[in-house]
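Our preliminary data section would be incomplete without showing what the modeling component actually yields. Below, a chain of 345 amino acids is followed by its predicted structure, encoded as tokens that our downstream tools consume directly.
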Amino acid sequence: MDDVVRERRRSREQSPHELGTAPPSRRLGALRPAAWDWSDFVDGALALDRHDLWEEPPIPPRVRLLQAPDRADELPLGKEFVTVRRMPPARRTRELRRARRERRAARRAQRVAILALVGVIAVITLLLTAFGAGTPARVASTAPAPAQRLLPTGPPVPLILAIQGALRLQLPIAQSKVTAVGYHAAGEGTLALHPLGRQSNAGLLSRLAHRIFGGGQTGLGWYQLDGGSGPQTSSLDVGASAGADVYSPVDGKIVGITDYIVNNRVYGRRIDIEPTAAPAIVVSVTHLRPDSSLTVGSSVAARTSRLGTLLDLSRVEKQALARYTNDSGNHVSIEVHPSVSLSLP
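Predicted structure:
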């Protein structure tokens, strides 16, 4: 190895002139370096690279990652400390739980009260639906009256409307022509009648009692009318169209025929009958034009003796029965008085 180094140095130190005069074989041998010849200062540094690194091509990742930019520098930095609320003590916690339970109980009681109220309203509605309204509305009809209402139908069938002691008041108008039956107060001095049949505008409790215990379910339906003083059932009104025939409600004899006065004017006659079954009382029939054949002392029979025809008083007085009929509420009125009260001036 040392020989090779010395030979190479010797060839470098020769001048070009000496190289030109040397044989060709010697010159070629001098130009070709030895197989293991390298420079200590240059050839040994070829394995080293420059101090700066080269740029390598990027390798795409197999899985796509989030490429959002880093914004950590943009987040606001708190300048003040935050204090967390202190946990409530155990006693305070129990009080809060108790208050919540009380509020829940109050809301539950309120819901129960509302449901109970709704249930009561539903029960009342069902009862009213089952037993009918107390004062049913009437719709006026413009259709012509049926033939049986226009043609003479003869005397009424036997039907007792009310009683007063031993007295029985029969239906005074043919049933096919009756529009409604009502009772109202007729003032002091009149006797209360006991209606037979069912009250069509009775209260809820009364209708419920009749449904449960029975009673008041036979005969014609009747209405309790407002107005007047004295007993609430002292006057019996039997509705019908004007011109209908009116018959005697009792057996007896006529003891008086007087004018019927309304607002100081005469409208028809009042016929007083002394019934055979109760001679201590007098039955008064008004709102009719009497038959010309009747006189004081004439005997009459219930349902067969014609007293007269019904008058139209719709323009003279307000008739309460019109609330339950399809017409103006014309009717014949029947009252019962003690015979002593009629003899007084």
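The chain has a mean pLDDT of 77. The first strand starts at residue 160 and ends at 164. Preliminary results of this kind motivate Aim 1 of the renewal.
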